[in-house]
Design brief:
heterodimer, A: about 325 residues, alpha+beta, Alpha-Beta Plaits, 4-stranded antiparallel sheet, B: alpha/beta, 6-stranded mixed sheet, about 35% helix
């Protein structure tokens, strides 16, 4: 546990100072004794927790599961958003030109459009090759033979620049293309993109709502555990208050207990997530391979893991603080 | 050191525990507080250690008016008042040493000073050899003395004792009273609530007598 390491180095430093300079200023003495007490309480609360390993482990696991669930879903969502970004790159705008536009004009238009900042590439499909392709792919070649002339217009396939491959960029591009005189119709299938975005957003909100609910659950679980700890140490609290212990002094051990529960819960959540990821990665990649998708599960980054554990510690502290506020202040000698 | 001016204490249910109590205890004075049970002895002690607030009048300890003392100041006042309880309030989940060390820890005394001061205090009550024992292993008299060691370990100017000899035989009671005398000799103001009339008479000290909430004797200043 890294938090144990830090105070120990502090002690060593303090004792070195003591050796060098025996006359202590009262302020420094007070500060040293303050941190000394923190160390002692932190150690003591760990010891108490390890004295009942099964109960502590259960609390950690409850916290771990409650934290791993929303974080896991968030990770899944992030992975999905990666996929939708991949699909967006395939988005192309199909521009149908008027019937009377000549092939030279169409080619000039192609060059014009290609100079736009938000356009990566423009491909011209002239009406002859369009018909040939249609004939080949539709299986209607005999029916097409009856037509007097080619009913298909010249078509431009516009691939937007990467920066423009989002809803707003696409809308702007489409609007600009529609304004061109030679253009009869612009077709872009933004519908599926919008739907996917809407679904991801909805899922995102759902996950956040779940996360909030589970965070509240974690706070309540810790709060209840701390309440029991307070009850079991009632005599000690009474004596501490009788001999002049401040509220902060009396609260401290329970707040540390909350912090350790949070830390344990965060670590359990981290382990659960890593295990799940490890267990799912193989099958997910196989499935993605079958769909020719580059989809892969995103794991927790280093910062993410740190944030998870820090968040867990914060929740543990908060739960303890609420319990302490509610139950500890009620214990008064008299 | 302890001053009561026209102090009354009424509880919600119209029960009046103290009625216009006046007295003054000087530095180093040792006095007994006596009276039938329910006369208000405990209430009076609770007012001094801020477990209760007076309904009227002024309670002054060490020059501090306690009536309107904000809640957050209470711990700091209590550090100046050592208390010995009848049921001694010892914690059985730790050693004698750790029990006695509590007032010092609460005050944030540095660890190396705690050892020295706890041992000095235990030595004073003759229990230095038992510092590593659990209080539950000790006899009633020894437990009471651990309670006394804890009450005086931070050298409070005021020492209160609530029936400190309640469960002890006369010899042990005399020993404990002798301890209290020693503390008063070094300037500690000692107030002992007791109904052990024989013992009180033996000691020949100032005695505050409560009768149904009124102080009927001992209110005048004695020449200690």
């Amino acid at each position: 546990m890294s938090s144990n390491k830090h105070p120990r180095t502090e002690t060593r430093r303090a004792s070195q100072k003591r050796g060098a300079n025996r006359s202590h200023s009262p302020v420094r003495e007070a500060i040293e004794s303050y941190f000394g007490h923190h160390r002692k309480v932190a150690r003591d609360s760990v010891r108490r927790m390890l004295q009942v390993p099964v109960a502590s482990l259960m609390t950690w696991t409850v916290m771990g599961v409650a934290l791993a669930l929303p974080v896991g879903l968030l990770l899944l969502l992030t992975s999905l958003q990666g996929v939708s970004a991949g699909w967006e790159s395939a988005a192309r705008v199909t521009v149908y030109l008027h019937d009377d536009v000549t092939e030279e004009d169409a080619d000039r238009l192609r060059l014009d459009i290609a100079t736009r900042a938000d356009v990566q590439e423009v491909e011209l499909i002239d009406k002859t090759s369009a018909l040939a392709e249609f004939r080949a792919s539709s299986g209607l070649s005999q029916a097409l033979d009856y037509l007097a002339e080619n009913p298909l217009p010249h078509t431009l396939l516009v691939t937007p620049e990467e920066g423009a491959r989002n809803e707003l960029g696409m809308q702007a591009l489409v609007a600009a293309l529609e304004d061109l005189r030679a253009v009869a119709r612009v077709q872009v299938d933004l519908g599926w993109l919008q739907r996917l975005n809407a679904i991801t957003e909805l899922l995102g909100r759902g996950v956040w709502a779940l996360a909030v609910l589970l965070a509240v659950a974690v706070i309540l679980v810790i709060g209840n555990t701390i309440r029991l700890a307070i009850e079991s140490r009632r005599d000690e609290i009474l004596v501490a208050k009788l001999v002049g212990g401040t509220d902060a002094f009396v609260r401290r051990p329970f707040l540390y207990t909350g912090i350790w529960f949070g830390l344990g819960g965060g670590v359990v959540a981290f382990i659960l997530l890593q295990l799940t990821l490890w267990w799912l990665t193989g099958p997910v990649e196989r499935l993605a391979g079958l769909y020719r998708s580059n989809f892969s599960l995103t794991g927790l980054s280093f910062e993410g893991s740190l944030l998870l554990i820090l968040g867990a510690v914060l929740l543990g502290w908060l739960g303890a603080w609420l319990a302490v506020k509610r139950h500890l202040d009620a214990i008064e000698p008299g | 050191m302890i001053e009561f001016e026209q102090v009354s204490k009424r509880y919600d249910d119209d029960h009046t525990a103290l009625k216009q109590v006046n007295f003054h205890l000087g530095r180093g004075e040792l006095a007994f507080l006596t009276g039938h049970s329910g006369a208000g002895k405990s209430t009076l002690l609770k007012l001094i250690m801020l477990m209760e607030r007076p309904s009227a009048g002024r309670v002054i300890v060490g020059g501090q008016l306690l009536n309107k003392m904000p809640r957050r100041q209470v711990p700091y006042i209590r550090r100046h008042v050592g208390v010995v309880f009848q049921n001694h309030h010892l914690l059985f989940d730790r050693t004698v040493f750790d029990n006695v060390a509590m007032p010092l820890e609460v005050m944030g005394v540095p660890g190396r000073d705690i050892g020295r001061r706890v041992r000095a205090s235990l030595d004073k009550v003759g229990l230095l050899s038992k510092e590593k024992m659990n209080p539950i292993q000790l006899s009633g008299g020894e437990q009471q003395r651990v309670g006394i060691a804890r009450a005086v370990v931070n050298k409070p100017p005021v020492l209160l004792a609530d029936e400190p000899t309640g469960n002890l035989d006369p010899q042990l009671s005399a020993d404990i009273m002798h301890l209290f005398e020693q503390f008063s000799q070094v300037g500690v103001t000692v107030l002992i609530a007791s109904h052990d009339i024989a013992l009180i008479t033996d000691m020949g000290r100032r005695t505050l007598t409560l009768d149904d909430g009124r102080l009927v004797s001992g209110s005048g200043r004695s020449v200690a």
